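Cont'd.
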Amino acid sequence: MSKNNDLERLLRYAGRYKALMYLSWVLSAISAILALLPLICIWLIIRDVLASEYTMIARYGAYAVALAIISMLVYIVALMCSHIAAFRIVANMRKEMLSHVISLPLGVEDRFGSGKMRKIINDSSAATETYLAHQLPDRAAAIATPIGLIAMLLWFDWRLGLLSLLPVVLGFLIMMWMTGERMQERMKQYQDALADMSNQAVEYVRGIPVVKTFGQTIYSFRLFKDSIDRYEKWVIEYTKELMRPMIIYTGAINSSFAFITAGAFILASGGITTEIILNVLFYVIITPVISITLTKIMFKSEEAMIVHDAIMRVDTIMNEKPQSDAHNGLVPSDSSVKLEHVTFSYDGKKDAVHDISIDIPSGSLVAFVGPSGGGKTTLASLIARFFDPQEGVIRIGGLDIRDIPKERLMQYVSFVFQDSHLIKGTIKDNVKLAKPDASDAEVLEALRKAECMDIIEKLPDGIDTVLGSGGIYLSGGETQRIAIARTILKDSPVIILDEATAFADPDNEVKVQKAFSSMLDGRTVIMIAHRLSSITNADRIYVLSDGEIRENGTFNELLGKNGLFSQMWKDYQSSVEWKVGKEAM
Amino acid sequence: MIKRLERTFALSEKGARDLVKGFIACAVHNLTLFVPVGILYLLASDMLMNTLTGRGIFYAVLCIISVVLIMISYRCVYKATYFSTYVESGVRRVSLAEKLRKIPLSYFGKKDLADITSTIMADAATLETGLSHWVPELIGAVISTTIAALSIMFFDWRMGLAVLWPIPVAILIVILSRNVQYRLSRRSMDAKMEVADGIQECIETMRDLKSCNAEKQYLKGLFGKIDKVEKRSIISEVGTAVFVVSASFILKI
């Protein structure tokens, strides 16, 4: 039942190649029947030999060879059809999943882990390939072959035929026993153990630089080793469990000769005739065909389980609810940002931000400060609608952001991330992401404003240098400056800045600050600040802690309050002094 | 030989020994599958000579013995292949992890770590299935076929030649075509890697893409790569099919 649903699901991805898939099954079945016909030729040859009649043998032999070749050719055509359709299905699955993924709120990726998500999109779709390209046509053949065989049985000797089919039935029973619900469960466990191990591996490797620096080997290694051990233990147990059924199964499908021998005795008990000898010899020859057919079916059901599992995995992504998108002509009236009683939780248990109301007038500069984990970045992400709050409304230019089409919203709001990612492409490609039709001059101008010229100058091909290849990688600060250039090119009225917490070198820091300030004029700016010195002139500062606003006001007002902010300022200053002092030494 | 196996399949010494055991077990198992053929041969000649009567028990015993033989030898195959590879792959993964730890720090800055790791883990899994399923079977088949071939030659060398000549020819075709096949699969592999990278990048840079309104545009490029994989897969499939089919044609004749 569920298998049929899987197949239906897969075929939906085939589009107009669906017909090709069906054609491959028909051809494969025809080929299977054709493959049985040489057996009749062989029967005729045996008959003639036993009758000492040699004139027709060569011709029968030629027939047999010709039929075998035709059968193979038909099979090849069938497989070609099924492969073309299978490749299309895989491609369409990937496309559909990716299209779905981009409509999801951000954060879903983090929950999955980017590696795992890629694995599902890329590998689970590929896992269906063998099933579609080989197993399904083979299944058609596996259905056609017994039908053809049964027809032959009736034609020749039904008693021997039935006996030679007995092991097939036995094999089937054992297979069903082996591949029941429990196996499905097992398969899932297996995949999970694999996934767990690969996640641990990524964690482990990510941690290596840290481990090397601080020399704490055992712990991170232990986690990884544990997952390996778990996997190993599981797999061995699984293999053990399968051993007995597999042995019996192998015994059963290879035992048809015994049944034929028994049959020969039963038939011979009434006296041996040429006909009996003929039939026994014939069945001796066709028996191997039966075990080959069985083996084909056998692998199919294993493959079907893999496919079922793959589809379940695909569904974990496809079942994620996409963010709604508005389709209308509404345009925000200005660049003011207003939050009304906004509450958001990542996990549905603990609120990351709780009942926050903020009013940011058009063209003002506000700062979010506070301890890490206080909700600053979450709040900023909500304003860019990377995800939607559970309660409350966020308005830009008076409009609920859920009523603004996503594309227009993104024209209004830019987000400079603390850790921007650049795509593998040229610098130009990366900057132009924000405005695909920008000219080279515009790109250069944006890069100049973002203080990126020193980066460009040291690259071999200037703005046409391909990043990520040939060992060209940019540092965090450099990456952020490119991202700022991108934002400058985009030229949106609302800008959200997530200041990087730490810079490798002071030169970079100064440049990033300069780049920041060159894009602030006349815009609404929301700045997540870590260096408190950069926000002394902010119109308003919000101090966030535990998802709530503790204090707000201008820099001087907050210092006067002698509260959380003034404490933070004292800490900050002493840390700066310490740094300066150290540098002076 | 053990040393060479260790290197080729990234095995420990014990693993290599187990692999050899796997080869032998597979070969022996294949040979036990020939026993029924012998029994049927006897049966046919008894029927033709009309000496069948009174040999019922003889045949029954033969049949039971050979089925038992098949099952026992299969048990050996099962133990020697599946069990030992899974134990071995645990060992391999741990030693991989150890090795990763010893790589100089500078290397980690340069490469996409998540990518390397998942590739390594996937390769370990492929190696695992390869070693548990295909390699012992293949080598076992080669050994048992050779033994069978030799014994056929022993019976009657003319018949032997008539039956066996296609095998070396087929092998020759496969070997000669290996270069072409290698190139084809290499190119489709490249296309596949590109898609895998693209998907990873798409997910990782989703935030940036979205805030630039560039996700649809990016997806268009990625779809192009997916289409390329589709095309390359078809080409390499056709290429491989041509050789494999011609080889198996000759085998069937």
